[in-house]
Amino acid sequence: DAKTTQPTSMDCAEGRAANLPCNHSTISGNEYVYWYRQIHSQGPQYIIHGLKNNETNEMASLIITEDRKSSTLILPHATLRDTAVYYCVHNNDMRFGAGTRLTVKP
Amino acid sequence: NAGVTQTPKFQVLKTGQSMTLQCAQDMNHNSMYWYRQDPGMGLRLIYYSASEGTTDKGEVPNGYNVSRLNKREFSLRLESAAPSQTSVYFCASSEQLSYEQYFGPGTRLTVT
To answer: How far is Cα of residue A27 from the mean position of the Cα atoms in its chain?
Structure first.
């Protein structure tokens, strides 16, 4: 089983921020948290990763709690094309759980 | 720059038949991976190759073999296909082990 825990599904209104949580309470000190998404049946796509500082790139922001036991992926202005399954992964684990199915609604 | 390519895109096998799934990357990555994804499930790691010349078992290696042919290519072989191996197979690569992975489009395999 994956070492991360994510909600099964979430909805978000188009144009609003989507906040996707992930619990990774067993993460070790040198492990990064990686986020990927899978649109329909395509191959997963890398989004962002972080160790302990918050990170931002052109796709998303990643907020990691101070104790590193959880993180939140933020899509600041969700669009219909962001509808996908989102996975959070420990980089040394290489196990993808079932992820969170995000549905962005008009 | 094609990234990660996989062949074939679709395949139907009869129980007991063998086949090899091909994967190639043009990003000069050291590490490569094979995953399977069953309907409604996450990805499960079958085998990985940290660098050219090395391969290691992942979470679900039974019934599969792999070959890291060179730095670019990593193949997955099913010696005697079983219906339980019906799945979508994804290949991925990364610059180093445990760095961000880049995935291919997948091979949809049905074993009847």
So the answer is: 15
The pLDDT, as a whole number, for residue A87 is 96
Structure token pair of residue A31: 């492990």
Give the integer Cα–Cα distance in Å for B28 and A19: 34
Question: CA B50: distance to chain centroid?
Answer: 14
Q: Do A44 and B48 touch (CB under 8 A)?
A: no
How far does the CA of residue A44 sit from the closest CA of chain B (Å)?
A: 6
Q: What is the DSSP letter of A82?
A: G
A with B: how many residue pairs have Cβ under 8 Å apart? 48
Instruction: Give the pLDDT of residue A1.
Output: 57
What pLDDT shows up at residue A2? Answer: 60
Put residue B2 in one of left, alpha, beta given phi > 0 → left and psi -120 to 50 → alpha. Answer: alpha
Please tell me if residue B39 touches chain A, with a CB cutoff of 8 Å. Answer: no
- Nearest by CB to residue A94, choosing from B45, B88, B104, is B45
**Whether A44 and B59 lie within 8 Å, measured CB to CB:** no
Total length of chain B: 112
| Cβ-based contacts of B90 with chain A (< 8 Å) | 43-44
Q: Where are the beta strands (DSSP E) in chain B?
A: 4-7, 10-13, 19-25, 31-37, 43-49, 56-57, 64-68, 74-78, 87-94, 102-103, 107-111
Using one digit for the tens of pLDDT, what is the confidence trace for A53-101? 899 999 999 999 999 999 999 999 999 999 999 999 987 777 888 899 9
